[in-house]
């Protein structure tokens, strides 16, 4: 009897070791909580290719679950099976949504495993190509002359475009009508078509459109001007009378709470390797993004960073009186 039990235990141990050694044995999904074609989606799609290569050449697919400022997609991952086949790539909205939503569909610090961060990304103020302003000073004059008539696109409450747009309106002391989309991919299409007037969005979505003349670039949201080709001539908002304006967003990867540590370690190792991939770095740099090389590559530091960001943005958002149920 004892022998049979021992044999059984050994078989189970071997089977589970074998299962982990074989991970990943089927395609992995990265949920992007915004629409396809937008900045978060772009980062995820480039990352999916290199991450798959570093996970035994497994396929990594991107699932766009946009809506409600990214909270729908994040909720989907919070409720997914913790088996190493569903991950989330999210941006600063992970830290701003808890302050914006009275009822959150997940617990940011309690429902996820933190896998490591991917990049830091500046934002830009862009306008429709038909806007009668060609630099920031002219934009400000146009804004003041058109109070009450300006449409500002964003990706919903909690999105980076919402946060940046909020601070932008506060700095200008002008209220604009916000037009929410499931992501700034579709918002960009409408901006290029002239259906909306202005947007604040990541450089990963705006660099090519500014360079191609499909939208007008007015300013960058960082304290220092950017060195990214095509964006070097844009002034910082800080230098345009908006002292201290500084919004730079970041992306990180998450797994559902309870994902086995061996899988988290394997994916973290693959993520670290992916972020050293010369082609991935080149693509990110061309879009103004800076790939993470510091200790935020570790799950523990990533977790601490998000906690600090929640503490940083919560009071700013609450002071602005922004809530959604
Ligand atoms: N840039 C968007 C935002 O945070 C999200 C996206 O579509 O990737 O507003």
Tell me what the structure shows.
With 325 residues, the chain is an alpha/beta fold. It folds into 2 domains: 20-121 and 250-320, D-Maltodextrin-Binding Protein, domain 2; 122-240, 3-Layer(aba) Sandwich (D-Maltodextrin-Binding Protein, domain 2). It contains 11 helices and 10 strands. The protein has helices at 2-21, 39-53, 71-78, 93-100, 136-145, 160-172, 184-192, 203-211, 261-274, 278-286, 299-319; strands spanning 28-32, 60-64, 86-90, 112-127, 151-154, 177-180, 198-202, 216-220, 248-256, 290-291. Strands 1, 2, 3, 4, 5, 6, 7, 8, 9 and 10 form a 10-stranded mixed β-sheet that branches. It is globular and about 65 Å long. It starts with a helix and ends in a 6-residue tail after the last helix. Aspartic acid (ASP) binds at residues 34-35, 38-41, 91, 154-155, 159-161, 183-185, 201-202.
Helix and strand arrangement:
Layout: H1 2-21, E1 28-32, H2 39-53, E2 60-64, H3 71-78, E3 86-90, H4 93-100, E4 112-127, H5 136-145, E5 151-154, H6 160-172, E6 177-180, H7 184-192, E7 198-202, H8 203-211, E8 216-220, E9 248-256, H9 261-274, H10 278-286, E10 290-291, H11 299-319
Parallel strand pairs: 1-2, 1-3, 5-6, 5-7
Antiparallel strand pairs: 3-9, 4-7, 4-8, 4-9, 4-10
Helix pairs in contact: 2-8, 2-9, 4-11
The chain binds aspartic acid (ASP).
């Amino acid at each position: 009897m004892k022998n049979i039990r021992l044999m059984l235990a050994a078989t189970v141990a071997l089977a589970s070791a074998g299962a982990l050694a074989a991970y990943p044995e089927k395609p992995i999904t990265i949920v992007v909580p915004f629409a396809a074609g937008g900045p978060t989606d772009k980062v995820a799609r480039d990352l999916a290719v290199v991450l798959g290569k570093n996970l035994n050449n497994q396929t990594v697919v991107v699932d766009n679950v946009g809506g409600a400022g990214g909270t729908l997609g994040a909720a989907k991952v919070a409720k997914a099976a913790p088996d190493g086949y569903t991950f989330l790539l999210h941006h600063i909205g992970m830290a701003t949504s808890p302050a914006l939503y009275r009822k959150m569909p997940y617990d940011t610090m309690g429902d996820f495993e933190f896998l490591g961060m991917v990049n830091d990304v500046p934002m830009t103020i862009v306008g429709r190509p038909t806007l009668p302003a060609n630099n920031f000073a002219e934009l400000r004059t146009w804004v003041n002359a058109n109070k009450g008539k300006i449409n500002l696109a964003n990706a919903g409450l909690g999105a980076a475009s919402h946060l940046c747009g909020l601070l932008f309106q506060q700095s200008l002391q002008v209220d604009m009508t916000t037009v929410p989309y499931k992501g700034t991919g579709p918002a960009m299409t409408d901006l290029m078509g002239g259906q909306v007037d202005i947007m604040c969005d990541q450089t990963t979505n705006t660099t090519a459109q500014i360079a191609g003349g499909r939208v007008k670039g007015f300013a960058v949201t960082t304290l220092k001007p950017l060195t990214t080709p095509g964006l070097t001539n844009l002034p910082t908002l800080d230098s345009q009378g908006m002292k201290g304006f500084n919004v730079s967003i970041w992306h990180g990867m998450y797994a559902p709470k309870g994902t086995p540590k061996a899988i988290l370690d394997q994916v973290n190792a693959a993520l670290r390797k992916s972020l050293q991939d010369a082609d991935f770095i080149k693509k990110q740099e061309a879009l103004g993004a800076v790939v993470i090389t510091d200790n935020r590559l570790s799950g523990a530091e990533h977790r601490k960073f998000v906690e600090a960001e929640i503490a940083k943005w919560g009071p700013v958002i609450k002071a602005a009186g922004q809530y959604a149920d």
